[in-house]
Fold this sequence. Notes:
The structure holds two protein chains of two kinds. The model of chain A has no long low-confidence stretch (mean pLDDT 92). Chain A has no helices and eleven strands. Helices cover 0% and strands 49% of the residues of chain A. Chain B is mainly beta. Chain B is 0% helix and 54% strand. Chain B has no helices and 14 strands. In chain B, the strands form four sheets. In chain B, strands 2, 5, 6, 10, 13 and 14 form a six-stranded mixed β-sheet that branches. Classes of the chains: A mainly beta, B mainly beta. Chains A and B meet through strand 4, strand 5, strand 9 and strand 10 of A and strand 5, strand 6, strand 10 and strand 12 of B.
Amino acid sequence: xxxxTQTPKFRILKIGQSMTLQCAQDMNHNYMYWYRQDPGMGxxxxxxxxxxxxxxxxEVPNGYNVSRSTTEDFPLRLELAAPSQTSVYFCASSxxxxxxxxxxxxxxGTRLLVL
Amino acid sequence: AQKITQTQPxxxxxxxxxxxxxCTYDTSDQSYGLFWYKQPxxxxxxxxxxxxxxxxxxxxxxxxxxxxxxARKSANLVISASQLGDSAMYFCAMRGTLNAGGTSYGxxxxxxxxxxxxxx
Lengths: 115, 120
């Protein structure tokens, strides 16, 4: 299993540009998450999904959108990039949300720089 | 609201010695999960160990053990026989249950992290 994969690894955007961060998992996990990590900080939840076709907002959703058309893929869309979105973005997945299958496994991250 | 506190910004340990990384948490949930993740300088997040709030035994995974003291709301990570490769940032995280309109999800709340440096 490849686990959780993310592309690209690094990207530089100009203010106002758009991009999609790709995330895929091959573990047949129902739950998928997007986090951002600002320098020297812990992770904060942007969006999450409990299954194909079902998504909802986390702590810091403004400026982002997601979709979940398949179990495997959970792309994150930035529509109008702003410098405040400079961060490292992590995608994660878990089998369930409760004890026994809730461990979240993370992708390698995408470093995004908005200038 | 849930909160994770890691009070040690940095810790130093000699190779082969044991080290404890502190984590305290605050939640009103009855059922929750506690996690430790390792983030080396390469940036990936590596799952280390999990403790459920109803687990009676402290979790262990190889050289990692979790000292879970429920009444004190603490979940300290103990690394035995430290190795140079243990040098990294360590995050404590908690999964609570948030009900919003009948929907709950396993959001993770992270602490600020502790940088561990292992000296030869």
